[in-house]
């Protein structure tokens, strides 16, 4: 498949990309090179090859979905600049 300047201009319009007329020949060459590369990839026989997202197939570690209160409120509030009655105190930002 080969693209011409009119098709590239149309693609740029669809992608909402402004392309100056002076830039079109170079862009046509680049896109045609990409299309050639895609055609080469389509020629590769991939029957029996499983699709993959990465080079290692492994499950991600999971943790239990448990609701808790953070364990110890004193430890949580220990690094707070200001705390009162077990809550963080923040400066007023709305008058």
Helix and strand layout, with pairings?
Layout: H1 5-14, H2 24-42, H3 73-77, E1 83-84, E2 87-88
Antiparallel strand pairs: 1-2
Quick structural gist:
The protein is mostly helical.
Characterise this structure:
This protein has a domain at 5-42. It has helices at residues 5-14, 24-42, 73-77, and strands at 83-84, 87-88. It starts with a helix and ends in a 7-residue tail after the last strand. Strands 1-2 form a two-stranded antiparallel sheet. The protein is mainly alpha-helical. It catalyses: L-aspartyl-tRNA(Asn) + L-glutamine + ATP + H2O = L-asparaginyl-tRNA(Asn) + L-glutamate + ADP + phosphate + 2 H(+); L-glutamyl-tRNA(Gln) + L-glutamine + ATP + H2O = L-glutaminyl-tRNA(Gln) + L-glutamate + ADP + phosphate + H(+).
Structural class: mainly alpha
For the CA atoms, what is the radius of gyration?
29 Å
The averaged pLDDT comes out at: 88
What share of residues is helical?
25-40%
Strand content: under 5%
Largest sheet: 2 strands, antiparallel
What would you call the shape? elongated
- Write down the secondary-structure element order: HHHEE
The number of helical elements comes to: 3
Report low-confidence residues grouped into runs of 5 or more: none
Sequence of strands across the biggest β-sheet: 1-2
* Ends distance: 65 Å
Number of strands: 2
Which descriptors would you attach to this protein?
36% helix, 95 residues, 3 helices, mainly alpha, two-stranded antiparallel sheet
């Amino acid at each position: 498949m080969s693209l011409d300047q009119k098709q590239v201009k149309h693609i740029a319009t669809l992608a909402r990309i402004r392309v100056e007329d002076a830039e079109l020949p170079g862009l046509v060459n680049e896109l045609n090179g990409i299309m050639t590369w895609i055609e080469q990839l389509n020629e590769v026989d991939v029957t029996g090859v499983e699709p993959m997202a990465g080079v290692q197939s492994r499950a991600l570690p999971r943790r239990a979905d448990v609701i808790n209160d953070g364990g110890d409120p004193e430890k949580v509030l220990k690094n707070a600049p200001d705390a009162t009655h077990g809550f963080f105190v923040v400066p007023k930002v709305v008058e």
